[in-house]
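Holo prediction — magnesium ion.
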Amino acid sequence: MSEPSPKPKSPGNAPQAAARALELASLAATGRLARRLAPHLRAGDVIGLQGPLGIGKTAFARALIRALLGPAGAGEEVPSPTFTLVQTYAVPTEAGETPLYHFDLYRLARSEDAYELGIEEAFADGISLVEWPERLGSLLPRDRLELELSTGAKPTARHARLVGRGAWAKRLEGLVP
Ligand SMILES: Nc1ncnc2c1ncn2[C@@H]1O[C@H](COP(=O)(O)OP(=O)(O)OP(=O)(O)O)[C@@H](O)[C@H]1O
Ligand SMILES: [Mg+2]
C-alpha cells in the first residue's frame, strides 16, 4: 500500500478575513473614517463600498478622494459616477502620481462590461473605490477591503462593517486594532 499523499500546505497561518464594526454617528464621522484610511492606501488597492441606495457610499468615497488629493482636493467637486460609471483622479505621491478610480457599477448590465471601464488597469496600477462591487461577480479581486454601510440608530447615523479579505485581513488588523 502506498503512503497517503501529504495534505496540501496552507499558506502560513494568515487569516483569510478580518472584520471590524464601527458606529458612524454623523456624516462628519464617515468623513473621519475616510481620512483615517486614506494615508494607508497605495497602488493596487481595491475598496468595495457596499450597502443600499443612498446610504453614504459616495459620501465616504468623496471624503477619501479629497483626502488623497491633498491640498488640491479641498476644492475638488468629486461628482458621483452614477451615469459615467467611473471618475478618475491623479493622487500625488513621492514618486509622481497614482491613478485613482471611483466606480459606481449600479448600472453595469454584465460584469464583463467592466473591462471597457478599465478595471484591469485600475486593479493593477491604481487605487480603486468601487460602489456596488457585487456587480463584478468573479472579476472582483480576492485581496480587498470592504466597507458595508447600513442604517444606524438615528437618521444621520450609519453602522459600518469593515472586512479585510486576503492580504487586507492583516492590514485591517493593523489599521483598526
Ligand atoms: N453618517 C452618514 N454617512 C454618510 N452619509 C450620510 C450620513 N448621514 C447622512 N448622510 C447622507 O446620506 C446621503 C448619502 O448619499 P450617497 O450618495 O453618499 O449614497 P450612496 O450610498 O452613494 O447611494 P447610491 O447607491 O445611490 O450611489 C447623503 O445625502 C449624506 O449627506
Ligand atoms: Mg453613490
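READOUT: The helical segments are 27-37, 57-69, 119-125, 168-175.
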